[in-house]
Write a structure and sequence with these properties.
By secondary structure, the protein is of the alpha+beta class. It has two domains: about 130 residues, Rossmann fold (3-Layer(aba) Sandwich); about 140 residues, Sandwich (Tumour Suppressor Smad4). The protein contains six helices and 17 strands. The mean pLDDT is about 95.
Length: about 290
């Protein structure tokens, strides 16, 4: 089998775990490819590992192994966004809502190599930007598209339409447009709802809205959402999955809708979405 190894952080723990993972897979005769920047970080000098850049991930790879936390997995998702390569996340971070395996990864990886796993397809957002100068750009997000004020002294005024119909004119610190996958990320901390990842839905969560009656809303994925800044001189920052920041102004038109692409996440037995909610958020546990 072919494995691409992905990461962008390094410390003593990560180096140790990566060394063990590489040895385990190489001993079983698997072909390994590693992101060049990650290989440099962890001082990988194993001649059996093929060093590649992010654009040279083999399209016939069986898995991309993301080693780190949810942020690392999100960056790997950008690398395989338009390919059918499943993502196998090994959590060496803190929360790990998206990852498949924890620090005791050995038995879980053995199960996966024996074919004992499932693939969950996760919805992706298509974010299309139309700039004032006539240029356009399309970005994709597994978690969320976030629009935040660029001026710390003024609230951000935005107009949001669902299709052709006005939804609301928001006055806030920003807006979070989230997939069900991203509903347990920034949107959750801003008061948004948790959404089953099997649903085709987009949540809009205002960040610190000026009007207390403004609440998060969950919309069907059947319509496009259009966002503009209400102030022609307004300035804002747009973030895709916490990265890929773009500067936008009053002349920028933003369209958010579900993409035809899907991200494939590896899910092991007993590591379901509902189980993660109970374990990661300590549901059902009494406080001491």
């Amino acid at each position: 089998m072919k494995f691409a190894i992905w990461g962008f952080q390094s410390d003593a723990e990560i180096k140790s775990y990566v060394g063990e993972i590489l040895s385990s897979l190489l001993d079983k005769g698997h072909e390994l490819f590693m992101l060049d920047s990650f290989a440099k970080m962890i001082d990988c000098d194993n001649g059996e590992v093929n060093i590649i850049n992010e654009h040279d991930i083999p399209r016939d790879a069986d898995f991309i192994i993301s080693i780190g936390g949810d942020g690392t997995l999100l960056s790997s998702a950008q690398a395989v966004m338009r390919t059918p390569i499943p993502i196998l996340g090994i959590n060496l971070g803190s929360l790990g809502f998206l990852t498949s395996l924890e620090r005791d990864w050995q038995s879980g990886l053995e199960d996966i190599l024996r074919g004992h796993y499932q693939i969950e397809e996760r919805m992706v957002l298509n974010c299309h930007l139309e700039f004032e100068d006539g240029s356009e750009e399309t970005l994709w997000a597994l978690n969320d598209v976030v629009i935040e004020r660029a001026d710390v002294f003024n609230l951000l005024a935005t107009e949001v339409r669902v299709g052709e119909e006005l939804l609301n004119r928001y006055l806030s610190d920003g807006l979070i447009f989230s997939t069900p996958t991203g509903s347990t990320a920034y949107a959750l901390s801003a008061g948004g709802p948790i959404i089953d990842p099997s649903l085709e839905a987009i949540s809009i969560t205002p960040i610190s809205p000026h009007t207390l009656s403004v609440r998060p809303i969950v919309l069907t994925g059947q319509k496009s959402i259009y966002v503009t800044l209400s102030n022609p001189d307004g300035q804002a920052h747009l973030h895709i999955d916490g990265k890929n920041t773009r500067h936008i102004n009053g002349g920028t038109r933003i369209r958010v809708r579900p993409s035809s692409y899907r991200i494939q996440l590896v899910v092991t037995q007993g590591n379901t979405f509902y189980n993660k909610l109970r374990m990661k958020l300590n549901w059902g546990q009494r406080s001491s």
